[in-house]
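> agent: user asked for a holo structure of the chain below bound to calcium ion. Plan: (1) validate sequence alphabet, (2) canonicalize SMILES, (3) run complex prediction with ligand conditioning, (4) return tokens. Step 1... ok. Step 2... ok. Step 3 dispatched.
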Amino acid sequence: MTKKSIQLFTALTAGAAFAASAASGQIVLASLDDVYQENFNSWLGTADSIPTGWNLSAAGTIEFRGTGTGTGTAGGFWAFGSTGSWALGELRSNATGDLTMAVAFENGTGETITSVGFSWNYEQWRYANASGLSVAGLGALSSADFSGVGITASTTGTNGTVTVTPTSISFSAIEIEPGEVFGISWTTVNAAGSNSALAINDFTAVIPEPSTYAAIFGALFLGLVLYRRRKK
Ligand SMILES: [Ca+2]
């Protein structure tokens, strides 16, 4: 790690210094056009099975509850789903306090990253109340606006049966310098009484090649010129 990235990573983790957490390093994106995918199928609801680059923390007591389908009421981190097909899940309780799931990347491309896109599925495995997850950027994306991609539990969900909500967000005209750390965090939003159980699944991060954007904008520009010529 460069000195700069160490400073950023320190800044990134300093906020959680007094919370209980379990982390598994960070993901180094090696080249532009890199695609990172995590399906959480190896996550088993244990501290040892957290995927590389992911960090789980609790404002109160951190708990790992293993695997389940959302019928259990114990607070903590869960692998929701069925054998071989799991999701990174949480169920907030008064003992755990707010729970945070985060993923951290390091720009290892040697170039400035100017655009990045993320997508994931929310999964609701248990409905209890209108609790949810809020989303924030980390490190170089800490000032980015993730406010539109949180989730509030839906009353249409059934306990033990998954409801899937695909979500995506992308940023352009950003500057993430070589060695800088950036990422996303999802933190529980509490509501009175027992909370709903939500999970993240099928997460993807994409760094589009800047030239790809140039080609797209070039085509749009050409189309506009042709349209204007036709109008004359
Ligand atoms: Ca999965």
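> agent: step 4 complete. Summary for user: The chain has one domain: 3-231. The two ends are 58 Å apart (CA to CA).
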